[in-house]
């Protein structure tokens, strides 16, 4: 054990305390969820403060606290700024949230919209994309828990990964979306306070001038604003972030759960608050050279720098911050993905006459199943977090234009939306493997746009919502 690691006893105490805290809170909050609607949408009555906190905390994931430093370490200034552009997803979703609530006042999932607007074929393609993305994000979160513990304590990767998955499954299962949103509020406060403090400590110890000189000496291309791969990553990440939020049922479920008129304000504010966090965590990574830290894996640079600056107490603080960030994202993803399966596949397709209690029971079973699948896939560490997460960019970016044109336009057909999502995803995957992970979302979004434009210009339809709303 190094001097910057948490000792085994302290690690177990923190893990146990946080696990018990979140699980008991989830149980307490879930006591009032007696119906499927209350369990998955918190009664559709979430106010501004909790709405903003849950959007903010869910988007501050392991990716923000671990991958943002990794990408800054790899791409420099563009990596830092490029990751912060993911805030555009939250900001641009703000007007969409109100539109979603208006068009589908009794809707449950993003799949409800796709099926109503585009039909079964597009819905199947969208569902596959959503599940691939959700699984990729869940795996990255599970891996991050293992990486966190193994880099900051004597506890193994497998133990950390197992604990974070178990805890999130447990309190999501007990409390549903109400527990997810309430815990997100507390986790937001922990995350913001901790990140600001660590950044201050890094600046105070390393100094801006020393950081600049050491980066220039060891990796001068990180300061090069004409670094080609980094520029490509910058634009790729914009569309990746927008695609993640626009398509994911994590955000659609919140649009349905928030009070009327709250969605637009809460998503806008949460996006503005989130924007500087990757810049702050990115600077922490650039401090590595000044502190003589050269991590074996780039996705470990953030925790190692913070632990080095603050010692054992810093390792504890980093652990608490990232544990909170992991939990705030994994619980949201578990709940939203289980909702998508239980509503779209079980309730609307397989068991159309299922009662509220039957649907809620199936939903809980899906939460457990998703947790088990994630744990099994996480057993071998597959790749770095950045590479794994950006693999899903090929999928999600293909949905941006079908969703926008579906919400605000009438001429895109179901066939056009289907082909746009399929062709965009295939192109993105080809570019991911043949060129680099930083091209997947960009190419997927571009091809999807071309297909949508072709169908709207040459094979348009005239869709009317009317009685379709709430279907």
UniProtKB/TrEMBL annotation:
Intracellular or extracellular location(s): Membrane
* Record-linked Gene3D superfamilies: Sodium/glucose cotransporter
Alphabetically, the GO molecular function entries are: urea transmembrane transporter activity
PROSITE patterns for the chain? NA_SOLUT_SYMP_3
Q: Which Pfam families match?
A: SSF
TM annotation in the entry: 6-29, 41-60, 80-100, 121-149, 155-174, 186-206, 226-246, 267-292, 304-326, 361-382, 388-408, 417-435
Taken from the UniProt entry, a GO cellular component term is: membrane
Entry keywords, A to Z: Membrane, Transmembrane, Transmembrane helix, Transport
This protein's membrane topology, according to the annotation, is: Multi-pass membrane protein
The family database entries (InterPro entries) matched by this protein are listed as:
DUR (IPR031155), Na/Glc_symporter_sf (IPR038377), Na/solute_symporter (IPR001734)
Q: What's this protein's family per the entry?
A: Belongs to the sodium:solute symporter (SSF) (TC 2.A.21) family.
Q: Which PANTHER family match?
A: PTHR46154, UREA ACTIVE TRANSPORTER
* Protein name per its UniProtKB record: Urea transporter
Species the sequence originates in = Pseudoalteromonas luteoviolacea DSM 6061
């Amino acid at each position: 054990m190094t001097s910057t690691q948490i000792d085994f006893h302290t690690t177990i105490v923190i893990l146990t305390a946080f696990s018990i805290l979140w699980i008991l809170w989830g149980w307490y909050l879930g006591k009032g969820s007696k119906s499927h609607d209350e369990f998955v949408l918190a009664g559709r009555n979430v106010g501004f403060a909790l709405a903003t906190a849950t959007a903010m905390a869910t988007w501050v994931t392991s990716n923000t606290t671990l991958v943002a430093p990794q990408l800054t370490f790899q791409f420099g200034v563009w990596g830092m700024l490029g990751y912060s552009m993911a805030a555009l997803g939250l900001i641009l979703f703000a007007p969409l949230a109100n539109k979603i609530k208006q068009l589908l006042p009794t809707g449950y999932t993003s799949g409800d919209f796709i099926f109503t607007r585009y039909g079964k074929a597009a819905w199947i393609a969208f569902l596959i994309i959503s599940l691939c993305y959700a699984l990729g994000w869940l795996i990255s979160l599970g891996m991050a828990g293992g990486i966190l513990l193994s880099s900051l304590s004597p506890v193994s990767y497998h133990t950390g990964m197992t604990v974070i998955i178990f805890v999130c499954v447990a309190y999501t299962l007990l409390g549903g979306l109400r527990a997810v949103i309430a815990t997100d509020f507390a986790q937001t406060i922990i995350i913001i306070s901790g990140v600001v403090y660590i950044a201050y400590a890094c600046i105070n110890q390393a100094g801006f001038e020393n950081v600049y000189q050491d980066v220039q000496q060891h990796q001068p291309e990180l300061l090069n604003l004409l670094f080609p791969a980094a520029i490509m990553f910058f634009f790729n990440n914009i569309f990746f972030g927008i695609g993640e939020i626009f398509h994911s049922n994590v955000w659609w479920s919140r649009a349905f759960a928030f009070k009327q008129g709250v969605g637009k304000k809460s998503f806008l504010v949460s996006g503005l608050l989130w924007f500087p966090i990757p810049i702050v965590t990115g600077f922490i990574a650039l401090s590595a050279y000044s502190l003589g830290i050269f991590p074996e894996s780039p996705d470990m640079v953030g925790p190692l720098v913070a632990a080095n600056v603050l010692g054992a107490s810093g390792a504890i603080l980093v652990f608490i911050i990232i544990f909170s960030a992991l939990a705030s994202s994994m619980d949201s993803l578990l709940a939203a993905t289980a909702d998508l399966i239980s509503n779209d596949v079980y309730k609307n397709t397989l068991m159309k006459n299922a009662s509220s209690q039957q649907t809620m029971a199936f939903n809980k079973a899906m939460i457990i199943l998703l947790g088990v699948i994630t744990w099994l896939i996480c057993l071998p560490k597959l790749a770095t977090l950045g590479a794994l997460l950006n693999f899903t960019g090929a999928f999600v970016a293909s949905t941006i234009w079908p969703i926008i044109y579906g919400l605000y336009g009438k001429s895109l057909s179901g066939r056009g939306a289907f082909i746009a999502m399929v062709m965009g995803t295939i192109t993105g995957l080809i570019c991911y493997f043949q060129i680099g992970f930083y091209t997947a979302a960009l190419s997927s979004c571009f091809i999807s746009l071309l297909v949508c434009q072709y169908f709207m210009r040459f094979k348009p339809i005239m869709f009317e919502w009317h009685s379709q709303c709430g279907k």
